């Protein structure tokens, strides 16, 4: 049975700039933004839109997995919504049969965006597992992205 966890964050970045970073430039930004966690990110298939497959190779800051493949399973530029589903490695190697993060961006001001995050997951076993830090690590990713865009983006 698929379960969901929801969280949200407000960031001081305009929705269009944030959308471009999250939906178009993610593979280039992640290794710069968090080099200890993401050593390299590649687009294996697609053009960044629906069906695109990314390969994220993790750095020394992640000890339990070396890579994760994700497919863009939702992509709606008109409403700034993107869903990334793990299809190999990562979470699937740690007890999940399904793991997907969906980001919904909503402008709340010229330089303000509300990000609603839904993480859907299913355990591969009867035991219900959800790492307790998943929502907080997603929020940390969002804050790191905001910081990178405000202070470190070219």
TrEMBL record:
GO biological process: abscisic acid-activated signaling pathway; defense response
Molecular function per GO: abscisic acid binding; protein phosphatase inhibitor activity; signaling receptor activity
Pfam families: Bet_v_1
Domain Bet v I/Major latex protein: residue ranges: 10-151
Database matches in InterPro entries: Bet_v_I/MLP (IPR000916), Bet_v_I_allergen (IPR024949), Plant_def-hormone_signal (IPR050279), START-like_dom_sf (IPR023393)
GO cellular component, one term: nucleus
UniProt entry keywords in alphabetical sequence: Pathogenesis-related protein, Plant defense
Family per record: Belongs to the BetVI family.
PANTHER family: OS08G0374000 PROTEIN-RELATED, PHYTOHORMONE-BINDING PROTEIN
The protein, known as: Bet v I/Major latex protein domain-containing protein
Organism in which the protein naturally occurs: Populus deltoides
